[in-house]
Design a protein that fits this description.
6 helices; globular; alpha/beta; Rossmann fold; single chain; two-stranded parallel sheet; 5 strands
Length: 132
């Protein structure tokens, strides 16, 4: 009921999608909940959405990310993991992807995150600059 997208994220995601960028969601939220939230706020923007399903290991296990890479034939050298937490940093590392760290998210920006992230994103519009 209180969930809403961060300011500016919808416009940036639409911009990327309109420029041929494939977008995915990988979350530790339960899969059913993730599907509802994404379809409500971001209809038709993502190629695939995966939340945590029964019996799966949560992030930082890279299984879901690797599933997307394999199933959609993504080139790792052209793929970023965008996130806002130490769990996302570990997931990116475990899947062999660079982390683009969102400074507007829920994460706790300890030194490790800031040093290890390949890119720092101060606002959603920065996604457009680093990806295109």
């Amino acid at each position: 009921r209180h969930t809403k997208p961060f300011n500016g994220i919808m416009e940036s995601l639409k911009y990327l999608k309109n420029h041929g960028i494939s977008l995915f969601v990988c979350t530790n939220k339960p899969d059913a909940y993730a599907q509802i939230i994404v379809s409500r706020f971001f209809p038709s923007l993502f190629e695939a959405v995966r939340g945590l399903r029964e019996g799966e290991e949560p992030k930082p296990n890279p299984a879901i990310v690797n599933y997307f890479v394999d199933s959609f034939r993504l080139e790792k050298k052209e793929t970023f993991f965008v996130g806002d937490s130490i769990t996302d940093l570990k997931t990116a590392f475990n899947s062999g992807l660079p982390l683009a760290l969102c400074l507007w998210g829920y994460g706790f920006y300890e030194g490790t995150l800031l040093k290890e992230a390949k890119m720092l994103l101060a606002k959603p519009k920065d996604l457009e600059k680093i990806i295109l």
